[in-house]
Each structure stands twice: as C-alpha cells, then as structure tokens.
User: Fold this.
Amino acid sequence: METQLIVSGQPIRSRFFLGTGKFASYKIMREAIISSGAHIVTVALRRIDPQAKEENILEYIPKDCIVMANTSGARNAEEAIRVARLARALGCGNWIKIEVIPDNKYLLPDNAQTIYATEVLAKEGFIVMPYVNPDLADARRLRDAGAASIMPLGAPIGTNKGIALRELIKILIEEIELPIVVDAGIGRPSHAAQAMEIGAAAVLVNTAVATSDDPVSVARAFSLAVEAGRLAYECGISPIRESAQASSPLTGFLR
Amino acid sequence: MKVRVNGEEVFLTKETSMAAIIAERKINPQAVVVEYNGVILTREKFDSVILKENDALEIVAFVGGG
Assistant:
C-alpha cells in the first residue's frame, strides 16, 4: 500500500489535488471533487460582482476538504501577501498557494517575488505552497523561507503539455526534502502518472479536468493514475535499459 | 459623499454602514471579507463601521481557481 502524504505535519488523504476553476457549474465541481477523492482543493479570491448573483463556492466543497486559496492575480509579492491575508480572513484556514505571475502570455511565475512572499507569510503562520519554476537554488531558498511544499510547474498553465520540465523537477525531488507537488500543464492521466513515477509527492490538476466533456469521470481517471504512478514509484520500478533483456526464458531447446 | 466600492465611485446621500452597503447589493455577508482603506475588516465589524468621504472598499469572496 502507498505511504501517506504528510504536508506540514498534516496527513493528506489523496495525492491528487484539484483546482476548482473553469467548471461549468459548482455542482459539477463538487461531484468531481467527490469522485476523485481529492483532499486538498484550491480556490481563488475575486472582487464580488453583485450583478452576477454568484453562489458561495464554499457551500459546494465537501466539509472534509482542505480549502487552499491561491493568490492568482498577484503580479508581485506585496499583492500576493495582501490576497493571502484576505483569504485567511474569510475563515478557511492557513493553507495558501502563492502564485505571483507578472507574465500574461506564458503565465510563468516570478520566483524571486514568490520567495519573498513565502518568507513573510510563513512567519505569519500560513502553510505556504509556492508555485514556481523548477530551479534548485530557488527551491532551497523557499525551503529556508518556510515553505511547506514546493509546487513546480510541469508546463505552462492550461497548456496540457505534460511534464515538459521533467529533468528539473526530478532534481528537486532528489535534492529537496519537502513534498514536491507538480502543478500546471498536466493534461492527461498519463502525465499525472509520469509525475508520480519520478517521485512527485502529489499533482494538482484543474484545466484538464474542468474543461473535459465529463469532468466527474476524468477527475476519477486522474486520481487513479496518480495512485498507480505512486504505487509504481514506491515499489521501485525496473530501470530503462539500452539493450533488450528477454522476459521469457531462452532455453534453446529448438536448436 | 463619495466612496469607492470595488473600484467604482458610489455616491451616498445618508449615513451608511458597511453592513448596509453589503445588504443593498444583496451580498451574503457570510461569504465575503472587506478590505477597508487597505485594512482587513471581517464580518463581525460590518455593523459598527460607518463610511466616510473617500473611503475605499474592496469586497471579495472565493471563486473557482486552480
């Protein structure tokens, strides 16, 4: 059986984290959370639009989930810190995914600003999960700043390109003792399995689930892939070789 | 009296509390938090705050996000 994921001392039931953006309705989002078994789900913070008559998303998130707010929309550390404090005041606990994104085309994060925000928020008692470019020196800085986990992107947000940054993510997994959660770019269950097979602690998926034809079933498919990938990693899968190795005995009785 | 609510100018003709501003917009106070002139104001304080000229309010809530 797989080992339990622990983040910041807290046992997490599933290594599949689900984002709640882009679902056709909160009802479908809720069903996807339940079908996947996700324990950590992310939400964003926005200005209220009184015309939109929006429902309260929290009423649709199962009560036993950890609601982790993200700081999307923040272009620098100061804005991310502001969003994090507002999110905590809304009363969903201390979990915060820091994303500081000054770039609109590729939505790539700003590591330096993220490190600063991590340091400030960790001191204020937040459980900080920073979304970053997979860079070893920066990951060490984040660890030293008090991050609970590091969340490198697999590929740019919403591109469904998979673990394009695989080699760099592998280095973080080998060198950083915190849970490494691959976030962004995971577009297929096979991508999620690949991340888990190289030793990622968890993956976070949103677009690929929410924008599929059947988000409830796809969420389940991702969750199964995460489980399969993790199990394979923990069992010690056989290495890749350059030359063939027979799987059937070559007894030679034909000659 | 002029205040800013979520970036838009709003003119108030009578004394208005934060709770009233929120109620007028049919916003569920349980679902929001307000940044009032840069300071976080939680719902327990909505009744006691009376708005002043040039106050800036950001009324925010959780929405779906990744």
